[in-house]
Every structure is written in structure tokens, then in C-alpha cells.
Specification:
Largest sheet: 4 strands, antiparallel
Shape: globular
Helix content: 25-40%
Structural class: alpha+beta
Order of helices and strands: HEEEEEEEEHHHHHHEEHHHHHH
Distance between the termini: 58 Å
Strand order of the largest sheet: 1-6-7-5
Oligomer: single chain
Strand content: 5-15%
Number of helices: 13
Number of strands: 10
């Protein structure tokens, strides 16, 4: 999910490409964005400017067409849009004929050939609305560090600070813009165990305080760590390994804790993974384990115990041929036609059938079992089954009652329990 740094970098991208350019109506919304309203904005010529605050990005459209101005002092009609990026939101600037596939809101330039500034979101969790910032969120830790610090430290009596610091730091009401990778990097540098109560960690910090770059405390790091990401020359597309190599590689090398193989990780009470080093702290959730550390089972563990071993002569023959020393049971001699047909069906044929849009019929249980070398008795064979004394085992149909009839024996005259 894009965090504070990615939002600020997106705002910087918008201002860079929009400088000296004009845009024109309509602002196009993609057909698949059914949950979002069409943007009612009619202007022959308008400018675009952007700002960012925590996890929200704002765009201000200003009409500069001559027909809409009432005087030289009139700056023109304005429209304020605020974006939430969701899981995969980002902005892109492209030629009109090279639009990204998931460009869901498009601002078209007046130049020829036209270029497009677009909001791209392939998972479609991102949103936009005609409104100002959400001021129930805390001040931006990077742009307003003093106000951010005051907001946190004057509300330590709130219930959110009863939680572990790794969970409280994700609350946007107090830590606007901090997300999963930023919390890992901040807590790692502050040397704070992630599952320590938030109030215990924060209550000793001074309220009236300037950011100390030489000896930063945890709240200082909430301002300093995201600002380091601003130093990248190209806007990163979140912490996404699918990004361009020259975009993602510098960011990956910058990370000290998040996703690193030499670090520990645990799942918190919000089912998010926290990466850390050293002790976890006293508030580790019960029945929560780590992720990304489980080893895949070996082929032998997946296959289970082997059914049959070769005898000495067969083993020698197999070894001389370079094969395995274990084989499965040979197929039954008597196989019905359906089983034979299934065994001859190749995987490629099934794939071709599925790609052609045809229904792939399941093989009957008996046929599939026969291919796997498992014996299935016919009705006649079942009816001819005998017990240990050679007496026939009598069975009745279970359709009427749903319960099987106990077997009868001549030796005792009593039903033998199953």
C-alpha cells in the first residue's frame, strides 16, 4: 500500500509534469470505475497543482479560460479533488495513445499530440472525491513535525495507546501516512521492541521539541525516515518488486529491516506482518506466528510413504538403468474401457480443451482409481466377499434406512460389531 513517501512523490510528479501545461475538459473516468462518480468540471483551459498530507493527495484544478474570468484579479473557478491511493494507486503521465491499462481518471492536455495525466489503480481500491483533506487525521509528520508531535503526546490517554506500539503507529488519526514498511524501519532504528505498549514507549518524550537529527527519538524518526525516501530521483511505485528495476532497486537497498532475510517477523493483531530485530516485547499476540519463514515440504514428505519396494534383482536392473529404487504398484490387468481412455489422456490435451472453452469431464472414480493403480471391486465381487471363516458376508441396501445391516456369523449367532 502506498505510504506517506509514495504520496508525496506522486504529488511531486504531478507538479513537475503540469508545470507550463494546460488541460482541457472533459476529465474522463474509466467505464469500470462504477463506484466513483463522474467529475463535473467544464473548462476549455485549466491548470493543475498538487499537495500531499499524510496518506492523502490533493489536486486543485483552476480554470484559466478567458470566457470564465470576470476580471484580472479573478484567478478563475477552482475545483479541489482529494485522492486516497488504496492498495495500488499511483499517477502516470503518458502519451494519449500509450495510456496504462488501468488509468481510471484522465486529465488531457491541450497540446498536440495530447498527453494524459492519469490516476492508475489496477486493484481499484483507490478513491477520489471533491472535498478538502480529512482533518481528523493527524498533521503530516514530515511537513508539520511539531504539530504532529503535539497531536500524539497530548492524546496518550486514548485507548489506542493501550495497544502495542507496532499496532498503534498504524492509526492514521495520530500517525498519518505511516504504513507497514515505515513502521518497521522506524521501530528498528529506535531500537524499540514492536510489542511494547505504546503509552510506555511515548509517555516520557517531550512535547515542545524540535526534530533532533543527531539523536532522534521515535517521533523524530516518523519525520526523518519518510523524508529519506524523498531523496530518490525517480518516483517509486510503492514498495513493489514489479516496478522498473532502476526504480525499485535503490529503494530495496535503502531498507534496513522490512522484508530482510536476517530479520524476524510476527503477525500482529491486525493480521499484518511486523519485521524487527531483537526481542519482540511482552505483548506478542497469542496464536500468531511468523510469515515468510516456513520451509516447503520435500518431495518425499509430500508423496508420503512408498507403497512398494523392488526386490533385489529388480533393484539392480533399475539402478543399472539409472532409475529410482522404488516403484508404485503395477496397474491391474482388467481395466474397463473408460479407465483405459482416461489413462491415455495427456495433460496437454486437457489444457487445450480448457483453453478452447469446452467443459472438461471428470473421470469416474473407478476409472481414475484404476489409472492410479488402486483396486475397486465390482458389485459381484463385493457380494461374493467372505469373512475370516470363509462364510459369506451378507449386506442389505442402506437406501431405506441409511444404516448398514450388521454382519451375521454362524459360529456365535450374534452380530459381530464393526
Amino acid at each position: 500500500m502506498p505510504e506517506l513517501a509514495e504520496i508525496h512523490l506522486a504529488s511531486r510528479l504531478i507538479n513537475r509534469v503540469a508545470a507550463g501545461r494546460f488541460f482541457k475538459s472533459p476529465v474522463i473516468k474509466s467505464e469500470v470505475s462504477t463506484k466513483m462518480k463522474d467529475l463535473e468540471w467544464n473548462s476549455e483551459k485549466f491548470t493543475v497543482e498538487s499537495t500531499a498530507r499524510g496518506k492523502e493527495l490533493q489536486m486543485v484544478l483552476t480554470d484559466v479560460s478567458e470566457s470564465k474570468k470576470s476580471g484580472p484579479e479573478d484567478g478563475g473557478q477552482k475545483l479541489t479533488l482529494t485522492f486516497g491511493f488504496g492498495m495500488t494507486g499511483m499517477f502516470s503521465f503518458d502519451r494519449f495513445d500509450q495510456l496504462p491499462k488501468h488509468a481510471h481518471l484522465q486529465f488531457i492536455t491541450t497540446e498536440t499530440p495530447a498527453n494524459v495525466l492519469s490516476f492508475v489503480d489496477y486493484r481499484r481500491f483507490g478513491k477520489w472525491d471533491v472535498r478538502d483533506y480529512d482533518f481528523t487525521r493527524s498533521p503530516d509528520p514530515v511537513k508539520s513535525p511539531r504539530e504532529f508531535r503535539h497531536k500524539v503526546l497530548t492524546n496518550l490517554n486514548k485507548a489506542i495507546f493501550n495497544k502495542a506500539i507496532c499496532e498503534a503507529i498504524l492509526d492514521q488519526q495520530y500517525f498519518n501516512g505511516i504504513g507497514n514498511y515505515l513502521r518497521a524501519e522506524i521501530l528498528f532504528r529506535a531500537k524499540v521492541p514492536p510489542f511494547t505498549q505504546a503509552r510506555t514507549v511515548l509517555e516520557g518524550l517531550p512535547v515542545d521539541h524540535e526534530v533532533d537529527q543527531a539523536n532522534p527519538d521515535l517521533l523524530d524518526l516518523c519525520s526523518l525516515v519518510p523524508a529519506e525516501v524523498f531523496g530518490f530521483t525517480k518516483p517509486i511505485q510503492g514498495y513493489n518488486p514489479g516496478s522498473l528495476a532502476e526504480v525499485y532497486a535503490p529503494f530495496k537497498s535503502w531498507l534496513r529491516c522490512y522484508g530482510k532475510a536476517n530479520m524476524k517477523n510476527l503477525v500482529d493483531n491486525q493480521s499484518r506482518t511486523i519485521w524487527f530485530d531483537g526481542p519482540a516485547g511482552p505483548m506478542v499476540p497469542k496464536n500468531k506466528g511468523s510469515r515468510h519463514t516456513s520451509k516447503r515440504k520435500s518431495d518425499e514428505e509430500v508423496a508420503g510413504p512408498k507403497k512398494r519396494k523392488l526386490n533385489a534383482s529388480s533393484a539392480q536392473d533399475e539402478a543399472s538403468a539409472g532409475g529410482s529404487d522404488i516403484v508404485t504398484a503395477p496397474p491391474k490387468k482388467r481395466r474397463n474401457k473408460k479407465a483405459a481412455a482416461v489413462s491415455e489422456t495427456t495433460f496437454e490435451a486437457v489444457v487445450e480443451t480448457a483453453q478452447a472453452g469446452k467443459k472438461v469431464k471428470r473421470a469416474p472414480a473407478t476409472a481414475a482409481a484404476s489409472v492410479a493403480g488402486v483396486s475397486h471391486k465390482s458389485k459381484k465381487e463385493k457380494s461374493a466377499a467372505v469373512d475370516e471363516d470363509g462364510e459369506p458376508i451378507l449386506r442389505r441396501s442402506t437406501r431405506s434406512t441409511g444404516k448398514p445391516t450388521p454382519r451375521s456369523t454362524r459360529s456365535t449367532g450374534k452380530p459381530t460389531p464393526r
